[in-house]
Structure formats: structure tokens, C-alpha cells
Design goal:
The chain is of the alpha/beta class. The protein has 10 helices and 8 strands. Strands 7-6-5-4-3-2-1-8 form an 8-stranded parallel sheet. Strand 4, helix 5 and strand 5 form a beta-alpha-beta unit. It is globular, with a radius of gyration of 17 Å. It starts with a helix and ends in a 7-residue tail after the last helix. The model has no long low-confidence stretch (mean pLDDT about 95). The chain binds pyridoxal-5'-phosphate. Pyridoxal-5'-phosphate binds next to strand 8 and helix 10.
């Protein structure tokens, strides 16, 4: 199947309240253009430099999402155009995003990454750490960011019951944060689900899936 067909097939099966982030990391701009021509406008990258390069050459109505682990010193390179940062896992990072957003006179949308997987390799905050950030005085001073929800990655396992359980946990954490959170009407996004598990994620309440290989084919990592 072609990239275009893959994009259309996923769009046709998605519930209306679920957004598709086409994860284009490592893929050439021709592939992204093909998905774009099928109507896809949201793309996800996990490296700042790669995302900036692609932003330069591709249509300007693309919404670029940073889905990878983000170093503070890289925020400045994408602050003028990034549409959503999924992987925010510290107050310090939020403060840097706010600072860079201020320079460009814009408000940058962010998601808090919550650690739901049992693996040590995965980044993210505990529910308590997220609550602490959202209620801190330092956070309340940040006028150029808005936290729109949460993001999580399930354990890399064949055990779909475990994956479902982890997604369910993220949904519960989301609901809890939303309840405590002052601007609940802005807190609407649950970014969970990838190629192997997005159907389960949607059943468990995902509003944003991040799908790469099911659209673009498998990735070859050379680095
Ligand atoms: C690569 C990546 C994805 C997409 O993975 P696929 O299995 O190719 O769909 C989703 N989320 C994050 C954070 C990623 O790094």
C-alpha cells in the first residue's frame, strides 16, 4: 500500500475526536509530501534539527509536533514554529519553552509526558510530579506556554493487556489532573497510541495517536 492509501485508511477509521500525528522521523520529505497530498497536516518528529530542516522545505501549513525527548538547549531552534511539544518532563524545560516562546511573542502548547511503562528506559513524570508542577508558583508565572494535556508511551511488549492497563492509567491521571487544574477547558489532549497499539489506545480514551511505521513503513536507523 502507498503512503497516501495508508493515511486515508487511518483517517477513515478514526473517531472524530481523535487526531492523527503522522510520525515522519527518519523519512525523506518526499514521503511527507505524499502524506500531505492525502490531506495529512500534523507531523511528528523526535529530533529538533531534522524537524527544522523539514520545516524549511515543506508547506507552511503543516503543524509540526515534537514528540521526542527534548534537551533544553534545543528549544530555541524550533520555538518560532513548533505547534505542540509532547514530551515535557520537567518544570525547567517548561520554563525554557516559555522563555523562548516569549521571544517570539507566541504561546507554545505542551503536553506533560507521564511515565506509564514499566521499563526504565522510558522518560516521564509520575502523577505526583505532574501535580506538583501544575500547582507550583513557578508554573503559574509562565504566560507563554499552555499545558494542553498528557502524553505517554506503553511498555514495548506483546502483552496487549498490559498495554491496555497502562493506557487506562494514563487516562485516569489525565482526569485527575484535569479536575485539579484551573484551566480545565484547555486541558483536552491525551497523546497515546502508536502503530502497534493505537486501536487499543483509542478504546482507552486517546485523543491523539502518533503513528509512524503504519503510514511510512519501517524505519532504517543508521545512527
Ligand atoms: C517513533 C515514535 C512513534 C511512532 O512509532 P511507530 O511504531 O512507528 O508508529 C510514536 N511516538 C513516539 C514518541 C515515537 O518516538
Amino acid at each position: 500500500m502507498t503512503i497516501k492509501e495508508n493515511v486515508r485508511n487511518i483517517h477513515n477509521t478514526l473517531p472524530k475526536n481523535v487526531m492523527l500525528v503522522a510520525v515522519s522521523k527518519t523519512k525523506p520529505v518526499q514521503d511527507i509530501q505524499e502524506a500531505y497530498d492525502a490531506g495529512q497536516r500534523i507531523f511528528g518528529e523526535n529530533k529538533v534539527q531534522e524537524m527544522c530542516d523539514k520545516y524549511q522545505t515543506l508547506p507552511k501549513d503543516i503543524q509540526w509536533h515534537m514528540i521526542g525527548h527534548l534537551q533544553r538547549n534545543k528549544v530555541k531552534y524550533m520555538a518560532h514554529f513548533v505547534a505542540l511539544i509532547h514530551g515535557v518532563d520537567s518544570l525547567k524545560l517548561l520554563q525554557e519553552i516559555n522563555k523562548q516562546a516569549q521571544k517570539h511573542n507566541r504561546i507554545i502548547k505542551c503536553l506533560l509526558q507521564i511515565k506509564i511503562a514499566k521499563e526504565d528506559s522510558k522518560f516521564g513524570l509520575s502523577a505526583n510530579e505532574a501535580v506538583k508542577i501544575l500547582h507550583s508558583a513557578e508554573f503559574k508565572e509562565l504566560k507563554n506556554i499552555v499545558v494542553q494535556g498528557v502524553m505517554g508511551m506503553a511498555t514495548f511488549t506483546e502483552n496487549m493487556n498490559q498495554v491496555r492497563e497502562e493506557f487506562r492509567t494514563l487516562k485516569l491521571i489525565f482526569e485527575e489532573l484535569k479536575k485539579q487544574f484551573l484551566t480545565a477547558n484547555q486541558f483536552t489532549l491525551i497523546s497515546m497510541g502508536m502503530s502497534s497499539d493505537y486501536l487499543i489506545a483509542i478504546e482507552e480514551g486517546s485523543t491523539m495517536i502518533r503513528v509512524g511505521s503504519s503510514i511510512f513503513g519501517s524505519r532504517n536507523y543508521t545512527t
